[in-house]
Structure formats: C-alpha cells, structure tokens
Known about the structure:
Layout: H1 4-15, E1 27-29, E2 32-35, E3 38-42, H2 55-68, H3 76-80, H4 83-96, E4 100-104, H5 107-117, E5 124-128, H6 133-142, E6 151-153, H7 158-164, E7 172-177, H8 189-198, E8 202-206, H9 220-225, E9 229-233, E10 243-247, H10 249-258, H11 260-263, H12 270-285, H13 287-303, E11 317-323, H14 325-337, E12 340-341, E13 344-345, E14 355-360, H15 367-380
Parallel strand pairs: 3-12, 5-6, 5-7, 7-8, 8-9
Antiparallel strand pairs: 1-2, 2-3, 4-10, 9-10, 11-14, 13-14
The structure holds pyridoxal-5'-phosphate (PLP).
Amino acid sequence: MSFTFLTSTLDERRQNNQFRRRHCIETIDQQLISVNNKQYVNFSSNDYLGLNNHQSINQALCDGAKQFGTSSCSSSLVTGYSYAHQALENEICQWQNKERCLLFSSGFAANLGTLQALKHAGTKLYLDKLSHASLIDGARLASVGNQNPVKRFKHNDPSHLNKLLQAERDNQLVVTESVFSMDGDCAPLTEIKQLSAKYNAMLYVDDAHGLGVLGQQGEGGASLCQSDITMGTFGKAIATQGAFIGCDKNLFDYLINFSREYIYSTAISPAVAWSTLTSIKLIQKEHWRREKVQELSQLFKSKLDSSITLLPNDSSIHAIVIGDEDKALSVSEKLKKEGFWVSAIRPPTVPKGTSRLRVTICQNHNARDIIRLAENINKAMV
Ligand SMILES: Cc1ncc(COP(=O)(O)O)c(C=O)c1O
C-alpha cells in the first residue's frame, strides 16, 4: 500500500505532542472570540493595533468592492492591476520612503517570490538563524543549483554575520526580520545595515511584526534602518490581507519580470487593496494605538512572577519559554479553562526544547483582562 507515511508521520507527531489542529472561531468581537460556544479573551491574535473590523476599513472594503469588484480576476501583468492597487502602492512608497512597491497575495508569497527571483549563480544569502519558514523556503529555492549554499548567522549576532560576509564580493543579500515572530525581540537593524553596506551587500528586512507597531507613523523597523528591500504584510497590524515588497526601481522591474509568485498569481482583491489604503492612512495618524500597546505590554510584564522567563522584547509579542511540548500544552489548556486563548507554540515552529506560550498584547485589550491573564499564568506555571 502506498502513502503509509501519512499515518505513520501523523502518529509520530501525536506521540511527540506536536500534532496540529484548527479551531473554528464562531464569533469575534474585538479581542473576544467564541469557540465551541465558550467565550475567550484572545491573546494569540496579530491584530496588534485593534483595527480588525474597524468601521472605516470595513466601509472602504465595501466602497472598493462597488468601484473595482471583489476580485482582480487576473494576474497584475494581465488586467489585474487596477487604480486601487496603484493608489495603495503609491501610499506605501511614501510611507516607506521607497522608489517602488509591488503587491503580493501574502507575506509568504512575497518572501518566496522575491528571494526565488534573486536566484543567480553568484548570489550569496545570509539568513538569521531564527528566520521565518517563508524566508527559509525562499532562500532554499534561490540556492537550488547554486554553488553558494545559504549561510545562517547566529540569531541577532552582527559579529557572526561580520565573519561570514566576504569583502569585495558582489550579489550578497542579508536577510532578517525587524521583530521576530515567535520571540518578539527586535533585530539590531542599524548595526546590520552598517555591516551590509560595508560589504556591499543588500539588506532585506521582513517587517511582518514591526509594521504598524514601530516608528512614529508605524512605518516599521525596516524603514527606520533604511533597508534596501522591505517586505511588509497586511494580515497583522494592518488588519487586511496581502503583502508588499518595497524596493528601488531596478529591482521592481526585475521582480515584475522574474518573480513567479507575482507573475503567475491573481493580483490581490482590489477591494482589499482599497481597504488596506484606508488602514495604512489611519495607522500613520493614530499614534495613540502604538502608545497603548506599549503601556499594556509594560503592565503585562510587571504582573508576571519574577520566576517566569520572558524573552527580552520591545514589541507586542511576549514569549514565555516553557521547554517541553507537554508542559506548554498543559499551561495553555489551564488558561483556556479560565477563559484565555493563548496558543502553545511547539517544534517544528520553534527549536526543540523551547516550546512556549506566545502572548500578543493588542491595543484593544483591557487592563483588567491583562492583569487576570498574568495572574493565571503565574498560577499555571507552578
Ligand atoms: C515573519 C513573518 N514573515 C512572513 C509571514 C507570512 O505572512 P502572511 O501571513 O501574510 O503570509 C509571517 C506570518 O506568519 C511572519 O510571521
């Protein structure tokens, strides 16, 4: 019988407490969700600025659908590129201080489509050890048949990167994230940018978790360090869907001609592009949302027992490393019983022995729930 590996590998996952399954969210009201008829405060969402279901963004989605339709009905290079996409790209270029911008259907597709397009016999890629799966896959695709294997530098370690980069070499690309998705810590982007410039390398920053949250106008970590290439997702703080690559004109033209994910995929919905434009305008104006995230994050940290190890962070993401899968699952289950949804993140998403709770603090959480969550984590961890 063929495909017996399906059952055997799933069994192995179950035995290791690494089996994944989905939960259907029946209703959602701000950060309150209901699953199987029970209500929870959601501390696992990436809606950092509390913009999901915002009235103006919803209205823009409806207006966009009326003006341009719900679907772009073809790839951007055929007839899928509309005024809605163009207006969004122009806004992002100004916000990010980039010459050009192009839209992808997801952050995963943007990372894959950009890195893969940079595949060239001489290209050398340097990735942070904790890079997101989409960056790793993109880099792997970029290095197929390439004599230069992808190099990984120690997490957030510019001195290790310095040892790996080579002087007088062309086509070197350093890839990192502004805020790491499972740890919540920020990359030392200014140092990494300086190093990249010293070795004539380009810097690619995945700003999935920094965009909207970092900077006076939510411009993110990549913009603050003036990365050469920025990837930003719309599905997190921006609260819509899709992604962009911000870059110079030359790379833009190259991607439009060689990025397979861009060329051979339906352009994002014009209605979504229109609502994303509204969201980005709001994000730039409403700095109070970022201040609130900082304030609530400080409150959460201050209420945790000193015995609890929280990874150092400067974002909405708070990672409490527990260790084995079993314990992480059991703490997450205890929190569910008390009405808090906090997912246990386990290998292979994070390295073995570092299973954790990933708590995300969003602008529309309330102080009372945050204090109760911290108290319950303190109790559940003993
Ligand atoms: C760092 C990072 N990059 C890229 C992505 C992919 O973005 P998207 O969800 O838009 O595909 C994610 C999403 O989980 C992420 O955390």
